[in-house]
Fold this sequence. Notes:
Layout: H1 2-19, H2 29-42, H3 44-47, E1 50-56, E2 63-70, H4 93-114, H5 127-153, H6 160-167, E3 172-178, E4 183-190, H7 195-204, E5 213-219
Antiparallel strand pairs: 1-2, 3-4, 4-5
Helix pairs in contact: 1-2
Amino acid sequence: MNQQFEQRFLEEMKTARAALSKKGGTKKYDKVCERIGRVKERYPSANKFYTIDVIANENKDKAQDIVWKKKQPKPQEDDGVYFIRTSLSGNDENTIWTIYNTLTEIEATFRVLKTDLSLRPVYHQSDKNIESHLFLGLLACQLVATVRHQLKNSGIRDSWQSIVRKMSTQKEVTTIMRNKKNQIIRVKKCSTPNSRVRQIYDALGLKHQPYFQKKSVVPDK
């Protein structure tokens, strides 16, 4: 288990370091430190094995590099050994471990259903509306599972909450103005995605921008 956490921890550290040399990547020193802090919070069991330094430039406003070094913590008296007891037979250790990890996915699915997809609480009172609410929630969950499965095939193992947080950095900007003919002009533009969002789009085979610009002209009522 710790090996998997450590692998994900190192993947995120490498991604943060790569962003320092990419266009649109996080480079401001304070923002980089915040990003490293979030990684530490997500993987405390792996973080304790590493010392991390963010190297700033001469002006102390941007990060030039992220350096981490593995250390060997002193063994604690309460350190134990992790065992899995199973009734399965004829399977190797990796297969049993993979099956066991599906429990984590099931628990995460319930969290997504209850929170992100708002499956509960149910405010409807009629059976028909309640059934529709549950059906749409499960349909949305199936979509989430499909997206995460495709991302995992490309090596992206983020939780749904992390994916939503990354994707929320891309915005739609709407500008509204009035011309001399008393018409309302509405211009919508889609912002350019950063490197992390582009990585997700590429893994799903989608365009980096669903559209570049939309313009509509309507008379003012």
